[in-house]
Amino acid sequence: MDYPNEQTNIVLIMNDHQAYYRHGWDGGVKPKRPYFDKLAEQGVEFTKSYCATPLCGPVRRSFINGLFPHNHGHYYNDSKVSYDNEESYLKILKENNYDVYYYGKWHAGPGTAISEHGCEGFSCEAYGNPYITKEYKEYLEKRNLPEARHFIEHNFTPERFAEEGFFVDICENIEYQCKSTWCGEHASGITVTPEDTHESFFLANLACEKLEEIASSKNKKPFHLRVDFWGPHQPFFPTQKYADMYNPDDIQIYGNFYDTLENKPEVHMLDDNRLISKDNKMIVPSPLEWKEWQKVLARAYAHQTMIDAAGGRILDKLKELGLDKNTLIIWTTDHGDGLASHGGHFDKSSYMTEEVMRIPMAISYPEKINPNTKNDRLVSNLDLPTTILASAGLSFKNKTDSRNLFDAIDMNKSWPDDLFCETFGHGYKERIRGRMYVNGDFKYVKFEGQMKELYNLAEDPYEMNNLALDEGYADMIQKMEDGLQKLQSENGDTHVF
């Protein structure tokens, strides 16, 4: 693919915790995402995109350096691995005449995008809580807005959080404000203050102000603008405007909600959410009737629509200012969400189901990517940093695990028909190793010391029939095992089990 003579502007919008399988793929009610869909229509939507690993900290680290966790060593959210000996795509852009702006959630290791990677903008250390920052307070004062408040309808927040001093005052049927050092409550409800008090619109407005500065500046250096929303990760707190877009009764029973997990490895049972678990294991069948899950899903879908609207403000501002020309725009997420899947989970855990692993991803690049393109090649969000650098005519100096997605977009170029993903678990109570391999329609998952999994995704998209238990699939299992070990070797993964 040819690149323009002038260096490309690059915009990356990163959602947190959003599953591809929440797109109504089964014909049911789906979250409304008009801005994401419009971006996809203007370019390419990857319909088989996966996360490199299903946990915020490790995968966000992979976004920066193009390496799998087994190579960068950041296995868990609380890992403290230094960036001293790693390349950073943000720094590479900065060192090559780019102005680099970062707004939002960091959660990718020590420091922040501002302090460690030469960016301008706003971000918090670790997971963070924008609602307690001076920048948020100044934003509210400037616009004469109240602090965000939320009415709690369902509270799944694990008891261990309160024991650690977090979210101690959250409970159902009250108005609530998050004052903790991070804002990941396991809850759903309604934001009762104006939508602009929500973190997503706070970030979108900061980004739009920066775009206005860029457009009016005489300094026409290329720029990279990255906005990382905290949502639609729980808590699911849409305003009433977005909640009214969904009737809970219209949300049909999810295809694997009644999964008993009898033919799954034990990792699927790990769960410590209030209302649905006991002794750190899921209660099966779910103690909550589908009627209650419909209400939670309706809030989660509305939250996705609200995040879409916030991201849409950025896209509208780009167009309004004429900055959408010669600009690569990427919209994706870090990992998926297991909400109401496989027996009734809230959040995700260490399992590697499609709900958790498969993610939305769309890329627009005027005159470089044909519009209305659906691409079903197997790709990973690990490939994004290399792709971003390639659009600027740049690259990592050292070998990475990341590939150039422009090669996947160009159907005249070859692209692997298989894919490797990994997990080390969440690291809270148990240390887990899991590996996933996809080849064509088949998906193979193995956790160290546990039952293997094999699914034909074309025939069984809900992953209800574990073919690894069928002796008739011995040859296929061996084929998938050989393919997995080959990719593990190519990517320097020595954790073979």
What does this structure look like?
The chain has 497 residues and is of the alpha/beta class. 28% of the residues lie in helices and 18% in strands. It has 14 helices and 20 strands. The chain has helices at residues 34-42, 56-65, 69-72, 89-95, 113-117, 134-143, 159-163, 199-216, 240-243, 290-320, 354-357, 384-391, 405-409, 474-490, and strands at 9-16, 44-46, 49-50, 99-104, 120-123, 150-155, 175-176, 187-191, 223-232, 277-278, 281-282, 327-333, 358-359, 361-364, 373-375, 379-380, 418-423, 434-439, 442-447, 453-456. The longest helix is centred in the middle third of the chain and has 31 residues, at 290-320. The two termini are 40 Å apart.
Q: Key terms for this structure?
A:
497 residues, alpha/beta, 8-stranded mixed sheet, 4-stranded antiparallel sheet, 14 helices, 18% strand, disordered N terminus
Q: Give the strand tally.
A: 20
Question: Order of strands in the sheet with the most strands?
Answer: 5-4-9-1-12-14-2-15
Q: Provide the helix percentage.
A: 25-40%
What amount of the residues lies in strands?
Answer: 15-25%
pLDDT averaged over residues: 95
Basic shape: globular
Mind telling me the C-alpha Rg? 22 Å
Note the main sheet.
Answer: 8 strands, mixed
Q: pLDDT below 50 for ≥5 consecutive residues: which ranges? A: 1-5
If helices are DSSP runs of H or I spanning 4 or more residues, what is the number of helices?
A: 14
Cα-to-Cα separation, first versus last residue? 40 Å
Which structural category do the helix and sheet elements fall into? alpha/beta
